[in-house]
Hints:
Layout: H1 3-11, E1 16-20, E2 23-27, H2 35-48, E3 54-58, E4 72-73, E5 82-83, E6 100-101, E7 120-124, H3 148-160, E8 165-169, H4 179-188, E9 192-197, H5 204-213, E10 216-220, H6 226-233, H7 239-252, E11 255-261, H8 264-268, H9 270-280, E12 284-288, H10 303-318, E13 323-325, H11 337-343, E14 355-359, E15 363-365, H12 378-382, H13 385-391, H14 398-401, H15 406-409, H16 414-421, H17 433-439
Parallel strand pairs: 2-3, 3-4, 7-8, 7-14, 8-9, 9-10, 10-11, 11-12, 12-13
Antiparallel strand pairs: 1-2, 5-6, 14-15
Amino acid sequence: MTLPQSLTELARLNIGISRHYSTILLDLPAQSITPRSLIIINDFWQRYNNQIVCLVLHNLPPCLLPRAFRQIHYYRQTGRRYQRIAACRSCALATSCPGWDNSLYVPTEQAQPIVLTPTEVVIEITGHCNLDCGYCTQAKNSGGHIAVGTVQQLLTQMVRSHVPAVRFTGGEPLLHPKLSELLSCAKSHNLYTLLNTNATILDGKRLEIMARHVDNMLVSLQGFNDSSDRAMTFSPVPFSQKMRNVQKLRSAIPTLRIGTVITPALLKNWDKYVAIIKTIRPHSWEIFRPMSTPLRGRHSVSRANYHTIAGRLLALNQHGINAKIANALPFCMFPDTSIAASTMLGALSDDGHSRLVWDLRGFFKPSYFIDKDLGPKLSDAWKHPFLDKVRNGAGLPAECLTCLCWSRCRGGSRAQAYKHYRSYHARDPLFDRSSARRQARVFTAP
């Protein structure tokens, strides 16, 4: 069945369907939510979730489709009566969800509580790095190397908490003297293993280790030739050597991604970077909003710059290159938020929404850029009150919590909010209230 045919079938169930650019909204009146319609909606979600840039399910209680809860837009509406049911007692969304809508034509027994677990834990395994990138938040060669025993304890916690993936980062992870042992430990626990690297110090032994143990690799690419790379990273390694290393990794690693921070060099020399990406042929090119003081204060990225980049990313995606802004930005910074939905991954990988970071100093924190000590125990860190406030949007504008993009945007970056307003619960500095208000009206047309 094609997508149009599936949408026609949903329309027969009195489900409102709105399409705007690459976003599809399914508006589910209470009378349309029945045991039969839930089967059809679930089938639709499983079939098309990865094919549609932004799929939003409106008015559906998350407990009726737990696997899709991040794409569900469900909040208290005037004139509706809600109650707490048995599933609410153990549901991770209990503090933010209004409860069970009494007008539903579905037995409460079908409700399943949402159980939140991290999708990934990031482990900083070394503070040492052979580069000195101006946009990096970590002081050069700060801290030492993590002990193998510490990593083993963390992996054991991950398995107990049903975390499926671990990411090794630094510093530069390839500088850890026992990297092979760390990666082997991860694979012995059947964990999906990711690694971040600058790919400048690859040799035959390290390549063999990577090929044997790493499932997914993110390679930092900040320049497009010797001079630009040296200006950005102070790399002692010729750019041509780095490119040869990347090509070897591209052949050896199942999934290789390229990551580039937005800088004046990227904005000015976009076509040259794109040429490099076309040569590498990575699985994805991830563009990053600068989160630290950019390049030691030499530049900042304007709203207009982001609009320019989004347009360029749309063009790349239309030509088969998977390129996105990969960290948190408020979707409402674009007058047409469907452009954001097509070019940005959103905030789910940031700020403790779906993963945690182990700091070399011996505690979990919400992200690379939020230096909040959540404690040394994974299960406690994941349920920390600070993260409850972040996930529930505490302190954010009301427009964020009722916005159709909330499931992915999450109000933008908490780290940037703190940087500008000294509060992790303030609005993102790029938040646009008028655009956020318009978003609620985007889907009113049939």
